[in-house]
């Protein structure tokens, strides 16, 4: 069965995100007037190879999704700054529900380096691998559920199980979005994609 979103315009996709309560009408108005799209009545798929890619783009433009990409490199010794920037991007997607402070690399106590920070003043500690100029992207897949604010949670597209996804697409594999779980699942159904339950 063809996903319903395959026939949507950009405007219809934005309206659906608002209808599901994933973003506010004011945020949607700002998004549609910001110049991201030349024509809101163009097909949602214009310029994209697949619905999952279109979904990721529209969620990022709506301010509830962000990407941890392969271009997020780091100068050795400045890992806390690099991770801190990504954590702040995540916090911005939550509409103020999450605040991140005191990001630092913890002391290696023999079990390996750890990324330490406070989320809503609660201490968090993520084991990470130091890979020279590259960040440990898997840390977000494994631990981003520490940044949940129930009933709103983080989710990600299951690149291996969703039709039209290239399993080698690291940008899509490392894209995360925030919202009420039932609404995210409904949006995923609209787009014909499967989601990963992060932290499992």
> How would you sum up the major sheet?
4 strands, antiparallel
The percentage of residues in β strands lies in 15-25%
Order of helices and strands: HHHEHEEEHEHEHE
| Approximate shape | globular
Mean pLDDT: 89
Strand-pairing-aware structural class: alpha+beta
Structure description:
32% of the residues are buried. The protein has a 4-stranded antiparallel β-sheet. Strands 2-3-4 form a 3-stranded antiparallel β-sheet, with helices on one face. The chain is 32% helix and 18% strand. The protein folds into 2 domains: 4-68 and 149-196, no CATH class; 79-146, no CATH class. The chain contains 7 helices and 7 strands, in the order H-H-H-E-H-E-E-E-H-E-H-E-H-E. Strand 2 (100-106) and strand 3 form a beta hairpin. The protein has 200 residues and is an alpha+beta fold. The model has no long low-confidence stretch (mean pLDDT 89). The chain has helices at residues 10-19, 25-32, 51-61, 79-92, 138-143, 170-173, 181-191, and strands at residues 65-67, 100-106, 114-119, 122-127, 152-157, 175-180, 195-196. It is globular, with a radius of gyration of 17 Å. It starts with 9 loop residues before the first helix and ends with a strand.
List keywords for this structure.
single chain; alpha+beta; 4-stranded antiparallel beta sheet; 7 helices; 3-stranded antiparallel beta sheet; 18% strand; 200 residues
């Amino acid at each position: 069965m063809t996903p319903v979103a395959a026939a949507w315009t950009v405007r219809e996709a934005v309206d659906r995100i608002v209808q599901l309560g994933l973003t506010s009408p004011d945020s949607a108005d700002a998004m549609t007037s910001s110049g991201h799209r030349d024509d809101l009545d163009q097909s949602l798929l214009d310029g994209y190879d697949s619905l999952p890619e279109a979904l990721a783009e529209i969620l990022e433009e709506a301010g509830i999704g962000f990407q941890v990409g392969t271009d997020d490199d780091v100068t050795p010794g400045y890992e806390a700054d690099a991770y801190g920037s990504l954590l702040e991007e995540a916090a911005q997607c939550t509409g103020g529900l999450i605040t991140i402070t005191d990001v630092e690399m913890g002391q290696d106590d023999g079990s390996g380096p750890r990324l330490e920070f406070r989320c809503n003043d609660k201490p968090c500690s993520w084991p990470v691998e130091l890979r020279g100029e590259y960040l440990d992207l898997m840390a977000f897949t494994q631990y981003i559920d520490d940044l949940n604010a129930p009933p709103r949670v983080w989710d990600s597209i299951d690149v291996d199980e969703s039709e039209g996804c290239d399993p080698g697409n690291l940008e899509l594999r490392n894209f995360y979005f925030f919202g009420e779980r039932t609404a995210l699942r409904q949006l995923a159904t609209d787009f014909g994609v499967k989601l990963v339950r992060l932290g499992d």
